[in-house]
């Protein structure tokens, strides 16, 4: 704000009054002001950029940590594209606001108020005439902001839909190609793309509605200065130098007036992104750990050790032995509480035993085992691990010792060795190799040109279904869990390899509790306890011999599968 004052002084003192000796000093002052202003501006721009980048760094880490903290229910309801938008474009809108909009906004407010204040000291009548424009300015910026608010929210949601569609199509590109659905998918994408464009255009139209008025305010300021200021100079109420200063200040208040519309748009974009990020950061996981979980488990371990006389066990309260008891458990997913998926499940699997679970698709097998790792909590009843309710265990202890080899195998884009050692980063080559052998994977890995150093593509692209299953089993074994759950893990593996894997696992019997979900009788027949599920209920239980003798559901499945294998369909008793 010093520059216009200096310019006015040059006009008044040097040009009008003829004090030429002052010109050099005034010019030097102008150079000094320019120099200081440039340094200040550069410094605070860098500071604000650093402020924005640091905040974003923390924000993204918090978001990422939160994602790991959230339970399955959150991911069941939130599209991946939406989550990705929060981590990328929303976060960037916040960075832009923090490192650019804040200082531009501050600049505008300081310039506007400061310039107007100085203008009052130069010539209050003209400044008052200019200040009359301010209410209009507030009105138009407020209206622009009010209408822009929902528009930016819609733009943000539309972008999330677009991202989800792209992501789904990249993941499902094989299915799209196999069904020759490229034109259909492209048309669907164009629909989303068009929606995104229309919503952006709606925002542009909103700007177009108010920006000309804001520009008009800025022209009004110029008109008032020229007409009223000129009149004041002609009538000797004001010097020409003062009018020159005024005119320079006019440029300074013009800039905030013109920018206010654009800044309001940025503020609304920031608001829409904040809403989404706040929703992610404040989302609550339904699976929560008791604050005193560690303590209560240690106490329980101590009491149990004293009662059973096995004092050594009290020293390892963190170690799960592997006893699993379902105590009249019923369960319905939170989004469909009316439909119980599991009904009155009640069984005991002592530590070190093998449990087989059989049942037709959708009977609730995967849901049942997901309760052991506390991916969900039972709606009714208790899942008890080593005599302690699963809800009372520290989550980390529980999940580090209960390992589910899921139906849908997921591998990281890393080396085979890196994938197997995912849960045991300190594992050496020999350990990784021995786990791969147990999972029947060593032979095919060794056959690869780069062996264990072979990098697998995203989600394990480049491997067959059976190979991926064996790798994920090896990864689970390397984690050395006390409770190993195999959810249809060997469904894509040939019978011979599966038999070998079963044999290897049999050798581990006693050291860990193993749950095997399968459709093939051969996968579960050696189990100590076999549960047959039907519509979420256990309809039969026992070992293979007892169940065959019982001539029930298990026997029917067994008979069918034996008939298929031997080429007979009848004649088996
Ligand atoms: N996230 C979910 N929300 C609501 N219902 C679900 C959800 N996941 C599964 N279900 C339903 O719960 C029931 C049991 O599913 P589950 O995956 O446990 O069956 P399953 O016996 O493991 O089947 P499969 O042998 O095909 O793997 C099914 O009817 C399914 O539709």
Automatic annotation (TrEMBL):
Gene3D superfamilies: ABC transporter type 1, transmembrane domain, P-loop containing nucleotide triphosphate hydrolases
InterPro entries: AAA+_ATPase (IPR003593), ABC1_TM_dom (IPR011527), ABC1_TM_sf (IPR036640), ABC_transporter-like_ATP-bd (IPR003439), ABC_transporter-like_CS (IPR017871), P-loop_NTPase (IPR027417), Type_1_exporter (IPR039421)
Any Pfam family matching the protein: ABC_tran
Residue span, ABC transporter domain: 324-560
Transcription regulation among keywords: no
UniProt keyword terms in alphabetical order: ATP-binding, Membrane, Nucleotide-binding, Transmembrane, Transmembrane helix
PANTHER family to which the protein is assigned, alphabetical: ATP-BINDING CASSETTE SUB-FAMILY B MEMBER 10, MITOCHONDRIAL, ATP-DEPENDENT PERMEASE MDL1, MITOCHONDRIAL
Name of the protein described by the UniProt record: ABC transporter permease
Species annotation: Bombiscardovia nodaiensis
Species classification: Bacteria, Bacillati, Actinomycetota, Actinomycetes, Bifidobacteriales
